[in-house]
């Protein structure tokens, strides 16, 4: 009986530790961040760099995730994008707003890291055609929702951000495992027809 209790407590602690590892955290600037380091043994810098570039060019449309800077010397990519968050009611759910974010990917030999941060909420409202659209001019950082977002709504939005961040991370991991098919510039061989 004691062994069963000890094993169940151990399983509970490992699941709690794993859940804490893959969740939103707070960085040194007191902002929410989703941060992951992934090891890819045996893959050189150039391969991981090309695969990350392929991810930014092909995984999402530019309206959802836009590549902003690429620095090959540092092995760094920065991008910005947005996630739709919804609030569930008793019978339905609808998009309650969009959360914009910034994303960074750093690449080294045999590993890479990525993080999503700077989460800013833009609420949606119904327009006269009964569709939801963004409210212009209202941008609320998720770290400072004082009296602008209700607590239960904030928890739902943070859960949506975590789910969206995990999906983006899973997509990035898939692209980092595949061979990128970016077309390389082919140098054409010049032939002189005068000399033969």
From TrEMBL:
* The keyword Transferase is assigned to this record: no
Q: Which residues form a coiled coil?
A: none
Which InterPro entries has this protein been placed in?
DUF4468
Q: Where do the DUF4468 domain residues begin and end?
A: 34-121
UniProt keyword list = Signal
User: In the record, which residues are listed under signal peptide?
Assistant: 1-19
Q: Does the keyword Signal apply?
A: yes
- Protein name as annotated: DUF4468 domain-containing protein
Taxonomic source organism: Mucilaginibacter xinganensis
